Structures are given as C-alpha cells and as structure tokens.
Automatic annotation (TrEMBL):
The keyword Transmembrane applies. Keywords: Cell projection, Cilium, Flagellum, Membrane, Transmembrane, Transmembrane helix. The chain crosses the membrane at residues 12-37, 66-89. This is Flagellar biosynthesis protein FliR.
Length: 96
C-alpha cells in the first residue's frame, strides 16, 4: 500500500546550514593550527605580547612563543566545540 511520505523542507534546510557551518568550523580549525605552527617557528616577529596588570608590567620575552600559541589556539578550540555541537544538533534534527 502506498503511504504519503511528507518531506519537511525546514528540516532539510537546517541540515544544509549545519553542514555549511561545520565546514566553516573545520576551516577555522585548520587556520588556527596553521597560525599556531607559524608562531611555533617564530615567524610572527612583529607581534609582541605584553600583559599589563594593575600592580606591575609583565613582558614575557622567554615565554612569548608559548603565549602566542595559547592565544592563537583559543579560536581553534572554540571552533572544535562548535563543530561537535553542530554534529549533535544535526543528529537530533535527523531523528525527528
């Protein structure tokens, strides 16, 4: 017996947007890894890191490479979390 199978266009549109944003998050992760690698090789010489506190001025010359890598890793970590959250949302949307 033939049954009516309704395809929800909003469900397909949401899945498409989620896939697009997952690709953008993956590209941001790759860009962040590349910038961390450049910072590791000390190729970012024009960028000086200095942290000013209210009590003293802290300029870490010996740990500057580590701080640059730490700062550049934050967008990558955020994109990684976003990638997995979007994957979970895609799975929830496809179940409905």
């Amino acid at each position: 017996m033939n049954s009516f199978n309704a395809i929800d266009p909003a469900k397909n549109l949401a899945t498409t947007f989620i896939v697009i944003f997952q690709v953008l998050a993956a590209l941001l992760i790759c860009l962040s890894i590349y910038l961390i690698y450049l910072s590791y090789l000390n190729l970012m010489t024009d960028w000086k890191v200095s942290v000013e506190f209210s009590f003293f001025h802290f300029t870490p010359e010996e740990n500057e490479k580590f701080l640059k890598m730490l700062i550049l890793s934050l967008p990558g970590v955020g994109a990684l979390i976003t990638f997995f959250v979007l994957g979970y949302l895609k799975k929830v949307i496809q179940k409905e």
